[in-house]
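Cross-posting from the modeling subforum.

Setting up a comparison between two proteins and wanted a second pair of eyes on the formatting. Protein 1 (sequence, then structure tokens):
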Amino acid sequence: MTLLIESLDQEGRGVARRDGKAVFIEGALPGERVSCSGYRKKPSYELATLDEVLRPSPQRVAPRCRYFGVCGGCSLQHLDARAQVAVKQRVLEDALWHIGRVRPEQILPAIHGPEWGYRHRARLAARHVPKKGGSLIGFHERRSSYVADMESCEILPPRISRMLRPLRDLVNALSIRARVPQIEVAVGEEADILVIRVLEQPSEADATLLRQFAERHGARLYLQPGAPDSARAFHPEQPTELYYTLPEFDLRIGFAPTDFTQVNHAMNRVLVRRALALLDPQPGERVGDMFCGLGNFTLAIARRGAAVAGFEGNRELLARASANAAANGLANAVRFVEMDLYRDDLGARLSELGPFDRMLLDPPRDGGIELAKSLSGDRPRRIVYVSCNPATLARDAAVLVSVQGYALRAAGVVNMFPHTSHVESIALFER
């Protein structure tokens, strides 16, 4: 097929039309004429692989990573970084209109940040493959469960990228190399931790190799035999304090190696600043921070003098949030409440807590639909919604606007994950 690419979809694939059907082509960019080959046909769409770019886009660039196209970690390195942000803004606007039937009154300026070496959290797959020379460490290949054969990664901090080859050699030398399925990377401001998932206890010889690796590369190793909360410090044996800072709010946020945190610390600082500017909490106001996690937004709101309550369903994260409040001298300024924000009787539980003047939502990819439906009575007059999924943001926006009577004042993207199709965004609702 020879096709003209019209746009990009939410996964970064080029979109063309043929005989009334959408054709999705990985690696193609808007405005390009390409030849491609279909590999999966459905009644309303077709998937195709790119064979040749016959007329390239002026925004096409040479990918920096030598594994681009094989590794599934990035899908947009062939597109100029500024153009990536414009594409993500279009994805957000399209989702809001086509799914939620809403349009923001204002498009917020896109938030940019570091384009390379930004990823402070990563989950690397490990697999022993004798046919490929032993153990592989990396992200999964595109559209595959295979582990990409890689020795570097441009979006990881350089010092972590340089560990990939030594990590392969380490795992390959272990007696339990076939029982190591995953290595999680957690980078703080003063320490790097590698959490090695082990399905079998290392031998004494393995333990010696692990300690030698940690000392040679300045990393701290944890072993995780079971669920994430089973991760324990291995070498050094004392647990390591991980933290990131929000200097504008004089905050230091501690976290455990397997906790959920934003992967891009620099962009998180800007995101918190933007969220607080939109929320504009005033001293003495009651503010609810829903899906508060470690207190990333909660503590910043408290610094503004508001009476803030953070709500979270994960008990361990709540304990960490409380510890962070105490460590930052805010123990008496915040309240943390364990609450399942997806339960059916959410409205009744929220009513018991009394009205909030303002509210911030930062839900996981599933969004906050139950919360959007549960607002009633004296609803917050302003809501800031931080989203990692344009589709669920658009769905929830439809409820907030058409059912709850809010206006979508503004929305924009935050390029938290450069070179990937992931769209992080922020929206402001008022009534």
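Protein 2 (same layout):
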Amino acid sequence: MPQDAAAEPRPVIVFWHGGRWREGDKADYRFVGAALAESGYVTLVANYRHYPEVKMPGFMHDAALAALFAAAHAQEYGGARERLYLAGHSAGAHLAALVTLDPRYFAAAGQTAPRIAGVIGLSGPYDFLPLLEPDDQDMFGPPPLYPESQPINFVRADAPPMLLIQGLNDETVRPKNSLNFATALRALGVPVTLKLYPKVSHADTVAALTALLRGRAPTLADIRAFVSQGSA
């Protein structure tokens, strides 16, 4: 939570970590919460179950529950539930985008989808077929279900604005994911801010949120500008 007083409720950001849907823990991303709180946002860094404990859509159901919790409790922490942003890095960006675009996950939780003011994706996989690794095939399978794992297949005209950040030296999630996703969203009139950082790797986009590595990429400045646009 921001430490300074505010005249009005603050934006709320839910952030999910990366790790190929297999590893990671929110405790390792406290630096993200700190950076965003310092920027004036109430921030929740959320965990989700990993493969092989669950397959798709298990972690998607977890993402929906985290977003619903944030909306329901925003006011308790000085946040505005109507200014809710969903964010993540790598697999976490996938969760943020897909839970926003595919209404089935909030419906499965038995609740109305919250109003999502925007999506912030760092180095996200949005268009990553074909699946070549056996564990990916198992996680997202069987094959007839593969398309349901792709956020690009669920773009719609009423989607919220999106900030897509990608390093051009990313060899883990190819930049074509953000490029293709942005193109598909823009074709339907969705506001998209696409930031492609030269000489920036997959991990650099989120590492740049740490105090020591802010000079590695302008991630925090671009997030601030994006949220400020939504608050205008």
